[in-house]
Amino acid sequence: MSGPLAGKVALVTGASRGVGRGVALGLGEAGATVYVTGRSLDTAHPDLDFLGGTLSETAEAVTRLGGQGIPLRCDHRDDDQTRAAVEQIRRGHGQLDVLVNNVWGGYEGLHVWDERGQRWNAPFWQQPLSLWDEMFAAGVRAHYVTSALCAPLLIGARGLIVNISFFAGMRHRDQENLPYFLAKNADDQLARAMANHLRPHQVTAVSLYPGLVRTEAVLNAPPGTFDFSNSESPQFVGRAVAALAGDPQRSQYTGQVLVAAELAGRYGFNDVDGQQPRSLRSEFGG
């Protein structure tokens, strides 16, 4: 393996498809060994089989790009499964340089358009109460637990934690989906608090905001739903993580909310189509 991240080891959670898969590919093309976790090892999860995507496919793509992809089946709502995955990384490589907390829950209703999707923009008292549990259990709590279990390995490597978040955390003036708004805010605050704890150990922790990402789910939406004129491939988000991981001065950003498109301008990388998307920060009041 060669590349700026050759010899580095990364863990990307929720990497069967979407942004997680793209992050894994971005790290792989930089030469990293990338462990990818999720519930879909060799067959797509039955709830989202129409979107496709498995961990094995992601790992194979990482390897084709020049890294080494290693799939680990893990439901991050189960602490024992998360602990076992981290232990496998420790036994296999004895180090962890990059942790990307991407796994999330609560979006499923938007994809299958059940009650959760139909009431996504409804007042909070009209939304299913399960939305809160899904986003906090499979999202924020999973990020916290995975970070806590990985911390000793990250400290040993003076590594990097990236929480994949979104601009929903900034839309406090709009009628945002309440559990989503609060969960993304919590993820941002988690990165800030972890940064304070980890700063003496020279571990960097940040939140990273993609823009409109051309994931399988987004591309599956009815025609006209999205304007793709300023959109990003999932791998573009991965290139942002890889650039940050390869920056020896990245500690200057610890505790901050970063935007993938802004990092592209800072580090000089483009999307897979050669474009450099525009940051959406100003559109969301950030």
Automatic annotation (TrEMBL):
SUPFAM superfamilies hit by this protein: NAD(P)-binding Rossmann-fold domains
Protein name as annotated: Short-chain dehydrogenase
Lineage, highest ranks first: Bacteria, Thermotogati, Deinococcota, Deinococci, Deinococcales
Pfam assignment, any one: adh_short
Species this chain originates from: Deinococcus irradiatisoli
InterPro entries per record: NAD(P)-bd_dom_sf, SDR_fam
Superkingdom in the source lineage: Bacteria
